[in-house]
């Protein structure tokens, strides 16, 4: 990670950009765009960071970057050069309002899905310009409920939501209908904080609580695990974010170790 003066920020979130670039948010509120080879191309700071830093970034189909400005309870749109293009959302519990939006994904029809925590604990669906469509989920431990839905992935008409404190990934349709828990209780996930879909349709889960990356298929069958808690090679410490590029390279925001880690399948 590029230093900021005497400070070495930690990566907090990562997603895949154009030409397999890595879009990274750090813990001091910067958006950093790395080339596919890991070279810093561009970076800028969020307009406001005094009350908290953003926790997710997503490349939209039209080339904009959508950022979950978590502690300001809104989603912001930027150009890839860091120009602010717009925003939506205010603090609250009503449709179209947020309490701590933390994860963003876009479906092939352009719909934007935003997961939030902080007692709302739900997923909301919007048009590409931020007009509210629907929401699903609430706080709790029952099927279809969440405790800190902190990551979200889309694949083949289904949404996979990392339900962190409930130690599970839940599956929903595009209209918010509950489909099930990925893998049931067999996966033994430990605070799954983020999830990403690979080009081959498999899913990769960053487990904050166990310091590892878990790969499963869409039926929830375990395909492999990598890593353990620590600071050495092949280890992770509180990983927050994960993304997979078009070549199948897995990027992990290894937050506690203040580094980005890339895995090749």
Which keywords apply here?
4-stranded antiparallel β-sheet; single chain; 265 residues; mainly beta
Short description:
With 265 residues, this protein is mainly β.
Q: Helix- and strand-based class?
A: mainly beta
Low-confidence stretches: none
User: How many strand segments?
Assistant: 23
Strand-and-helix sequence, N→C?
EEEEEEEEEEEEEEEEEEEEEEE
Determine Rg (CA atoms, Å).
17 Å
- Measured as a percent range, the helix fraction is under 10%
From the N-terminal CA to the C-terminal CA, the straight-line distance is 23 Å
**Mass-distribution shape:** globular
User: Which sheet architecture does the biggest sheet show?
Assistant: 4 strands, antiparallel
Question: Order of strands across the biggest sheet?
Answer: 1-2-3-4
List the helices and strands and how they pair.
Blueprint: E1 11-16, E2 22-26, E3 30-34, E4 40-45, E5 56-59, E6 65-69, E7 74-78, E8 84-88, E9 101-106, E10 112-116, E11 122-126, E12 132-136, E13 149-155, E14 158-163, E15 168-173, E16 178-181, E17 192-197, E18 203-207, E19 212-216, E20 222-226, E21 241-244, E22 250-254, E23 259-263
């Amino acid at each position: 990670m590029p230093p900021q003066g005497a400070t070495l920020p930690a990566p907090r979130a990562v997603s895949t950009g154009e030409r397999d670039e890595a879009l990274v948010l750090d813990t001091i509120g910067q958006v950093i765009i790395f080339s596919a080879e890991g070279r810093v191309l561009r970076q800028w700071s969020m307009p406001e960071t005094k009350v908290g830093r953003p926790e997710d970034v997503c490349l939209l189909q039209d080339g904009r970057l959508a950022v979950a400005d978590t502690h300001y309870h809104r989603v912001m749109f930027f150009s890839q050069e860091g120009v602010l293009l717009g925003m939506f959302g205010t603090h609250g519990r009503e449709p179209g309002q947020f309490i701590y939006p933390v994860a963003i994904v876009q479906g092939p029809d352009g719909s934007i899905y935003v997961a939030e925590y902080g007692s709302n604990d739900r997923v909301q669906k919007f048009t590409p310009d931020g007009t509210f469509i629907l929401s699903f989920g609430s706080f709790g431990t029952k099927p279809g409920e969440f405790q800190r839905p902190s990551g979200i992935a889309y694949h083949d008409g289904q949404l996979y939501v990392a339900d962190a404190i409930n130690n599970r990934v839940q599956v929903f349709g595009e209209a918010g209908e509950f489909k099930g828990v990925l893998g049931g209780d067999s996966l033994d996930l430990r605070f799954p904080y983020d999830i990403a879909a690979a080009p081959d349709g498999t899913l990769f889960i960053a487990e904050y609580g166990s310091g590892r990356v878990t790969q499963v298929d869409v039926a929830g069958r375990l395909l492999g695990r990598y890593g353990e808690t620590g600071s050495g090679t092949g280890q992770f410490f509180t990983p927050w974010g994960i993304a997979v590029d078009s070549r199948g390279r897995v990027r992990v925001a290894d937050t506690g170790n203040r580094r980005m880690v890339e895995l090749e399948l």
